[in-house]
């Protein structure tokens, strides 16, 4: 039984009045560290992609509305586990190292677009990368130029700007000039009604310890400075609408 149900049941039985605590403790029961770091999969929905139920249902509605406006949404990526993210991490790590980059430069280069395993919002089942497949899918669908003026997804991007938030989906890594961390990702949307709460919980974890004690390729080079900057910029410097 979930804590909330338990409290409700207990209150019904005893006739007590429950006063809400200041901290929403039920969040901590719902989203564990293993779950938010991708090590334990939540219940996921979807056929060609995977999301949590509420995000999945809302996404279906947005997809339908897009279709009515002439856009055929294609999901490039949705839920990713820790091991999936680690496979991406290791592939990029080996690639940059083989080009002669130092460990520090390798990490710096990977974290322009890719996350350190355990810190991806794709672990949450609320975030996804989408494009419009109406005119086919190019070999590099997730490129900013496609979404900019004159790009193949420009009209779709304008449609998303106007409609996606009504369905709960927000751009995470915006093109705000003063934003740091990951580069602009117009394709990456997050289902705010769930992910805002998840970030609140995620922030309470000892992320520095989690990262420095991880046995990832290159994690011996996760200095205090690097990890602190990563948390501040890559994890927390996102669209302010997802924090408020
Ligand atoms: Zn993404």
Structural description of this entry:
There is one protein chain. With 244 residues, this protein is α+β, with helices and mostly antiparallel strands. The chain has a single domain (52-242), classed as Muramoyl-pentapeptide Carboxypeptidase, domain 2, CATH 3.30.1380. 43% of the residues lie in helices and 7% in strands. It has a four-stranded antiparallel beta sheet with strand order 1-2-4-3. The longest helix has 17 residues, at 82-98. The two termini are 30 Å apart. Bound molecules: zinc ion. Zinc ion binds at residues 77, 122, 129, 188. Zinc ion is lined by residues 77, 122, 129, 188.
**What characterizes the major β-sheet?**
4 strands, antiparallel
One letter per element, helices H and strands E, the order comes to: HHHHEHHEHHEEHHH
- What CATH calls the topology is Muramoyl-pentapeptide Carboxypeptidase, domain 2
Q: Indicate the CATH class.
A: Alpha Beta
**Rounded radius of gyration (Å):** 20 Å
Which regions have little confidence, pLDDT < 50, spanning 5+ residues?
Answer: 9-16
Structural class: alpha+beta
Q: Using DSSP, what is the number of strands?
A: 4
- Tell me which ligands are bound: zinc ion
Regarding quaternary structure, what we see is: single chain
Name the CATH architecture: 2-Layer Sandwich
Q: Any idea what the shape is?
A: globular
Amount of beta strand:
5-15%
């Amino acid at each position: 039984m979930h804590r909330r149900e338990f409290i409700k049941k207990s209150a019904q039985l005893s006739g007590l009045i429950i006063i809400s605590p200041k901290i929403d403790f039920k969040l901590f029961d719902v989203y564990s560290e293993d779950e938010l770091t991708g090590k334990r999969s939540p219940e996921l929905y979807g056929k060609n992609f995977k999301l949590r139920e509420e995000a999945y249902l809302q996404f279906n509605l947005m997809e339908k509305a897009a279709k009515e406006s002439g856009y055929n949404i294609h999901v490039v990526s949705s839920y990713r586990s820790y091991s999936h993210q680690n496979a991406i991490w290791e592939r990029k790590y080996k690639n940059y190292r083989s080009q002669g980059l130092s460990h520090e430069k390798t990490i710096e280069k990977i974290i322009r677009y890719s996350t350190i395993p355990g810190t991806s919002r794709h672990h949450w089942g609320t975030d996804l990368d989408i494009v419009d497949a109406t005119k086919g899918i190019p070999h590099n669908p997730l490129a900013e130029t496609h979404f900019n003026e004159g790009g193949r997804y420009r009209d779709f991007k304008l449609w998303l700007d106007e409609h996606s938030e009504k369905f709960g989906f927000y751009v995470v890594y915006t093109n705000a000039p003063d934003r740091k961390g990951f580069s602009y990702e117009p394709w990456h949307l997050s289902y705010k009604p769930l992910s805002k709460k998840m970030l609140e919980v995620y922030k309470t974890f000892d992320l520095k310890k989690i990262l420095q004690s991880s046995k990832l390729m290159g994690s011996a080079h996760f200095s205090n400075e690097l990890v602190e900057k990563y948390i501040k910029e890559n994890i927390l410097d996102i669209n302010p609408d997802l924090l408020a």
